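Hello K.,

You asked for the raw outputs rather than the summary table, so here they are, unedited. I folded two proteins back to back in the same session to keep the settings identical. This is the first:
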Amino acid sequence: MSVFGWMNDQILRMVWLNDLVENGVRAVGLDPASRLGGSVQFFVYDVIKIFALLSVLIFVISWAQSHSPPERTRALLGGRSGLGANTMAALLGTLTPFCSCSSIPLFIGFTAAGLPLSVTFSFLISSPLVDLASVILLASIFNWPIALAYVAVGLVVAVVGGTVIGRLGMEDQVAAFVRTAPVSGEAERLTQRERLAYARDQVAEIVRRVWPYVLIGVGIGAAIHNWIPAEVVSALIGQDKWWSVPLAVLVGIPMYADIFGTLPIAEALVGKGVGLGTVLAFMMAVTALSLPSLILLRRVVRLPLLVTFTGVVTAGILSIGLIFNAISNWFI
C-alpha cells in the first residue's frame, strides 16, 4: 500500500510538480500562501498536470481503440437486447473519450445499423459522462474511491436511462434520415505505424478541442479556491442546503465542457465544503446535458424523445447527487 500510495502521489497527483511550481512562484516574488500567489500556483499546476495526464491517457486509449473500430462495436452490440445489452453499451461508452456532441454521430450510426433505441441511448449517455481518462484524472485530484464511485454512478445513469427510454417505445420519435443513414463497412486493418499515428492525431484533436474549457475551468477553480470565502460558497450550495443539487444541475446544463474542464472547479468546490453529491451532479449535468449537445440532439430526434431523455437523465443525476451528499463521509 505504501508503494501504491507513493505511485499515486508522484505519478497521478504529481506532488513533485506542485512543489516545483510552488518554488517557481516564490522565485518570481509571490507568496503561495497569498491569494494571488495561491491562484497562480493552482492554475499553473493544474493546467500542466491535466494536459500531461490527458495526453498520455488519450494516446493509450486511442491506440487501443484502433483495434476496435465503430463497425466492430456495432457488430458486438448487434442482435443483443435487454439489460445486458444496455450494460455492454454503457461499458463501451467508457472507451470513447468524446464530448456529448461528438458522441451523436456514433449514435446516428448505431441507430442506422438497427440497434435498439435503449442500447443507443445507454451509449449516448455513457460516452461523454464516463471514460477511462476521466477516472485517472479524478483519482489524481480526489482519490480512487471517489473516482470509482463516479464511474459506477455514471454507468447506472446510462443503463437505467437507456432502459427507461427503451421501455417507452419511442422509436418513431427518431428522425427518418437517421434510420436511413449509410453504414460504413468493416474498417481496413491498420499497421502499427498507422495505429500510432492515429493515437497521436487523436491526442492533438482532443487537446485542440478541450484546451479552452480546461483553461476556463482551472481559472474558475483557482478563483473559487483562493478568492471566494468558504462561508460564501457554503451559504449558497453547502452540503446542508436542500437546493444545492438542483442548483448545481441548473448551473451545469447551460455550460459546454468536457469532464476535464469541470474537474478543477469540482476540486475547488469540494475544498470549500460543497457536498460530494452536489459536485458530482454538477459534473454530470455539464457533460451529459450541456445545452449545445441538446440542441444538436434535437436535430436527430423529435421533441417528445428529447424531453424524455432530458427528464430521465436529470432525474438520475438529482437522485445520485442527493444520495452521495448523504453518504459523502464514506469517501472524504
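The second followed immediately with the same parameters:
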Amino acid sequence: MADIEHLQIVKASAADVYFALTTAKGLSEVWTNELTVHELVGAVNEFQFGSDDLTKMQIVELIPGERIEWLCVESDPEWVGTSLSFELEEKKGKTYVTFRQTNWAKVTDFYRSCNYNWAMFLYSLKLYCEEGQGMPFQRRKF
C-alpha cells in the first residue's frame, strides 16, 4: 500500500479553510467548477473534470474546523477505495492543513501524477483562502 501526504500552511482561520473544503462555493474555487456538494456525513459529493472524468466521494467524517474525510466510491480504478482526509490545526492565525490520500494499491505513474496534482490543489486552497480566488481545474494551465 502507498499513501500521499502533504502539509500546506494557510494564513486563514481553520473555520475559513473548513468552509473552502466542505461547501460548493469553496470547492468550486479550489478544485472544480462542475460539482454537486453536500455537507452531510454519508452523502456523496460529485466532482467533474471534463466530459468523461467523474469522481464521487462519500463523506465519512466532518468535524467543523478540525477534520474532513472522504472515501472515493467512483473514479479512476486506482482511486476507488482510497480515503482522503484533511486535518486542520490553527496556530497563531494560520491553519496547518495535513492532507492524506491513503490505501493506494501501489505506486504507479498515475499515483505520481496525482501526488503532484494534490500539491496544486493545496496551493489553490491557499490562494482561495488568502486572496479570494483559487485555481480550479477549469483555470489551470499545467
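The longest strand covers residues 94-104.

Happy to rerun anything if the numbers look odd on your end.

Regards,
P.
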